[in-house]
């Protein structure tokens, strides 16, 4: 049996989380068209008869601006430097021109001590597939990737070829997790992330990075989960944006989050949402630590 650990890296909005969800066959990482949606390492496990792959999705590679984004880049470095990492996947958005951010990503790969596959994502958006060849040549001129794999994480095109390429490069080893294990994230944290995703979707450009979600109550019954959560923002005006006229936007956020939680949790969900202002929370190391479910565990 093949088994091993594979880190997924790339620039913000390259489609890393969409790819992780596609690889494991379930939504375990939130997705949005806003960059830097992923703030921490997300584990996803793919188990097949021929092997088991433990993927680790990471925040987008970027220049940090505050406490939160510095913390996110520490997560990226952890994904690169973990001693048991067998393989790296650099995910690139084929619809964007090669730029300084891509250079930075390639430089990080070159310094890593693991083989790297280049995953050229979003090929479903290319009008002409022959445009891939010049892009591959650019990357090939900067680093000797093990393989160049065009995929669409959205449609699934090329993903089976990617899985085969990953399994072919993993060593023989044990099965680390049971067949039905998908992620190490607790349900409480997954619920908080789904709420944050709906906030991003509903507010779009108004609040791209200014929100955080903490679950204050998570009571599991046989038929019902009672949950209370707080959406944190940095300014009073942002609180008004989330609540909306007559509380309608907050109600919509709760409805959308609950609808997605119930199939995942296998029970009805009663969700009570609140919005609080916590100035400069992105600069507060103690607050960021409190949001980290691994620290809570």
Per the CATH scheme, the topology name of the largest domain is Rossmann fold
Strand order of the largest sheet: 2-3-1-4-5-6
Amino- and carboxy-terminal Cα gap: 31 Å
The stretches of 5 or more residues where confidence is low (pLDDT under 50) are none
Approximate strand percentage: 15-25%
- The CATH architecture classification of the largest domain is 3-Layer(aba) Sandwich
In total, how many domains does the architecture comprise? Answer: 2
CATH class of the largest domain reads: Alpha Beta
Give the helices and strands as they follow along the chain.
EHEEHEHEHEHHEEHHEHH
Largest sheet: 6 strands, mixed
Total strands:
9
Shape: globular
Oligomer: single chain
Radius of gyration, in Å, reads: 20 Å
Q: What's the helix count?
A: 10
Which structural class best describes the helix and strand composition?
alpha/beta
| Average pLDDT reading | 92
Structure description:
The chain has 297 residues and is an alpha/beta fold. The chain has ten helices and nine strands. It has two domains: 2-169, Rossmann fold (3-Layer(aba) Sandwich); 187-296, 2-Layer Sandwich (GMP Synthetase, Chain A, domain 3), CATH 3.30.300. It is 37% helix and 23% strand. The strands form two sheets. The chain has a six-stranded mixed β-sheet, with helices on both faces. Helix 6 (187-203) packs antiparallel against helix 8. The protein is globular, with a radius of gyration of 20 Å.
């Amino acid at each position: 049996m093949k088994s091993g650990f594979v880190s997924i890296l790339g620039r913000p909005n390259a489609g890393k989380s969409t790819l992780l969800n596609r690889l494991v066959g379930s939504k375990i990482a939130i997705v949005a068209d806003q960059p830097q949606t992923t703030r921490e390492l997300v584990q996803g496990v793919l188990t097949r008869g021929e092997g088991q792959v433990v993927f680790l999705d990471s925040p987008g590679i970027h220049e940090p601006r505050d406490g939160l984004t510095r913390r996110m880049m520490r997560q990226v470095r952890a994904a690169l430097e973990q001693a048991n990492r067998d393989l790296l996947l650099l995910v690139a958005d084929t619809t964007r021109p090669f730029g300084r951010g891509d250079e930075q990503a390639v430089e990080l790969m070159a310094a890593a001590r693991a083989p790297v596959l280049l995953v050229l994502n979003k090929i479903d958006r290319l009008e002409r597939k022959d445009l891939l060849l010049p892009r591959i040549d650019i990357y090939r001129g900067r680093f000797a990737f093990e393989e160049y794999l065009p995929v669409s994480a959205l449609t699934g095109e090329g993903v089976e070829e990617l899985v085969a390429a990953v399994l072919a490069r993993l060593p023989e080893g044990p099965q680390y997790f049971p067949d039905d294990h998908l992620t190490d994230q607790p349900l409480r944290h997954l619920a908080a992330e789904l709420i944050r995703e709906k906030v991003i979707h509903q507010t779009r450009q108004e609040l791209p990075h200014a929100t955080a979600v903490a679950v204050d109550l998570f009571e599991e019954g046989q038929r019902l989960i009672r949950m209370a959560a707080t959406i944190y923002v940095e300014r009073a005006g942002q609180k008004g944006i989330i609540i909306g006229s007559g509380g309608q936007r907050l109600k919509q956020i709760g409805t959308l989050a609950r609808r997605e939680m119930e199939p995942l949790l296998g029970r009805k969900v009663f969700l009570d949402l609140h919005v609080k202002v916590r100035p400069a929370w992105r600069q507060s190391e103690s607050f960021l630590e409190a949001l980290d479910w691994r620290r809570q565990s």
